[in-house]
Write a structure and sequence with these properties.
269 residues; alpha/beta; six-stranded parallel β-sheet; four-stranded parallel β-sheet; 10 strands
């Protein structure tokens, strides 16, 4: 048993999409979350910058005595996972891409046409394609970057004409030209527009990595006898900019429960 909190982080509010699944499947666990809302989006930044920011955040989470670090961000996972594992050998570090890749391999065959959507950083380094091949070869995978989605979502532009036009701009030809039947939401912000995507493309099978990572968290905690029980820790959410959208989303997720919100800044470079 280990009642220390789990540390989650993301470039902004997108990583919060993992938290309802954690509460559903691992209700005893408590968290410290950091959203780098002042420096989002990460997806179009240089890899060196993403790594610098991620190391700052991981150091901060470690200072909060977390028992695990969960990278609730596809961009950071695709660019920094191994680096963070090497820096913190005494803390389990879990990324979001491999659990989703395992799910893709389990549910898809060579007859499927799989589409990966994500940030420029995630798509350019073919993180999902590489991870999926570790589980199964011969799958039809296409990918495309959707860089405008994260800034719009961070601004709360989710269910209006601007978002609809943006989704169609990126996905209409991508889905048609590649005969996509399975779509992977390769950014933790994207579940926040899942309903809009489903309205436009109702026949797609959608895979949400924000859900798939929970099984991996459970397995690591269970294998290391680190599952919590009756923890008195208060769920705590930090952000480098306490935007209204960030606060509203936390209130929605934890309505009726106790939690704490705090500001934490880093050098903005």
């Amino acid at each position: 048993m280990d009642n220390r909190p789990i540390g989650f982080f993301d470039s902004g509010l997108g990583g919060l999409t993992t938290i309802p699944y954690l509460a559903q499947y691992l209700p005893e666990e408590k968290i410290v979350y950091f959203g780098d809302t002042a420096r989002t989006p990460y997806g179009s930044k240089a890899v060196s910058t993403i790594r610098q920011f991620s190391m700052q955040i991981a150091d901060f989470l470690k200072s909060k005595n977390v028992k695990m670090i969960v990278i609730a961000c596809n961009t950071v996972t695709s660019t920094c996972l191994q680096l963070l594992k090497q820096k913190y050998p005494d803390i389990p570090v879990v990324g979001i891409i491999d659990p989703a890749a395992k799910k893709i391999a389990e549910v898809c065959t060579g007859e499927n046409h799989i589409g990966i959507i994500g940030t420029k950083a995630t798509i350019s380094n073919m993180a999902y394609e590489t991870a999926v091949r570790n589980y199964k070869t011969g799958l039809n995978i296409s990918s495309t970057a959707c860089p405008i989605f994260v800034p719009l979502i961070e601004e709360g532009i989710v269910s209006d004409d601007i978002m609809t036009l943006s989704i169609k701009h990126y996905l209409d030809s991508f889905i048609t030209e590649n005969s996509i039947d399975t779509l992977v939401l390769g950014c933790t912000h994207y579940p926040l527009i899942r309903k809009e995507i489903e309205k436009l493309y109702p026949n797609l099978n959608i895979i949400d990595p924000s859900k798939e990572i929970i099984e991996r968290i459970y397995r690591v905690l269970s294998d290391n006898d680190m599952l919590a029980k009756d923890s008195s820790f208060e769920n705590t959410f930090y952000a480098s900019d306490l935007s209204d959208n960030f606060l509203n989303m936390i209130n929605t997720i934890f309505e009726g429960s106790n939690f704490r919100v705090a500001f934490k800044s880093f050098d903005i470079k």
